[in-house]
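Field guide to reading this record: the first block holds the primary sequence, the second block holds the structure written as discrete tokens, and the final block holds curator observations. Each block starts with its own label. This record concerns DegT/DnrJ/EryC1/StrS family aminotransferase, catalogued under organism Catonella massiliensis.

BLOCK 1 — SEQUENCE
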Amino acid sequence: MDFIIQMEPSYDHNEKNALNEYMESGGWLMEFKKTRELESMIADYTGAKYCSIMPNGTVSLSVALIACGIGVGDEVIVPDYTMVATPNAVELIGAKAVFVDIDRDTLCMDYDAMVNAVTEKTKAVFFVSINGRCPKDIDKYVEFCKSRGIHFLEDAAQSLGSFCNGKHLGRFGEIGSFSFSVPKIITTGQGGALITDDEELYNKIVKIRDFGRDKGGSDHYLTKGWNFKFTDVQAVIGIEQMKKLHSRVMRKKEMGKLYEKLLSGITGVELIPTDLEETSPWFYDILADDREKLLEFLKDNGIGSRIFYPPLHAEPAYGYEGHYPITEEISKKGLWLPSAITLTDEQITYVCGKIREYYN
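BLOCK 2 — STRUCTURE
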């Protein structure tokens, strides 16, 4: 069997033909009608009233904070276990990222840890629905923040196609953010999107991402803004990717069920509880004893895998004091298995067979 890569993008003649048609049409490449079309597709799919697309997910997170009036000297609570873009987006605008531990079952931000981290400087919480998961009591987080006048925002970068209690992730907060980088369920190479039901916040977002001007092509600036615009070239690809989203969500769930079936009962492997009726997994993740040796064993057998994010508070980029026991534990044991949408049942069966062989 050929080497099974841990993750790769998927595109076909539909994207290629659409790009060719766009170029033949004389499109100017810059953001225009195709970008607006993609934004409408995302809003319709998620059920949000508004969507605005950015160059990448990190930028979209920062823009969400700026739209909420957050800046220098403010604190934003983030989980210690997340992709580094979450705290980086906070500190990019001069605010301070305050790390908290995660819940052992969902790997999402722990509620009590969040509550205990609030100070008079806390202006927002960035809730990360890691790997498309979300606690069923997420409304508890929302209500607490609302009662304290704290903005509840969602980093749903890994969660397009995932729901909680029947509601698409990214819609529980005032603003939700998605990413379209290469490993995501749909990709435009790079890209991010903000969704919201709040018209006032949406109007702020639109201005911030386009130099702060009152309308496109104008040289009248109502607020400070930057060039965070997209391109129609990327949007053309994104539109074709969105057409495949439903089938990809269904396939991701099928793959998750097969992984669960074939990995169950292996001593040394812990499966993370996942509601595959609502969650479309980004990566297929396990907690593994002897993780480093397992990783090498898999590699020797033609299988790519990837270790979990580290505890971010202790990374050289931050170097913050603190003890986050759940994050520290799962970061030492966590392993992402092959997760590309192109993965076949035969390949999944081979991967699981090798894991079982290693532990037996």
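BLOCK 3 — OBSERVATIONS
The chain is about 40% helix and 15% strand.
The mean pLDDT is 97.
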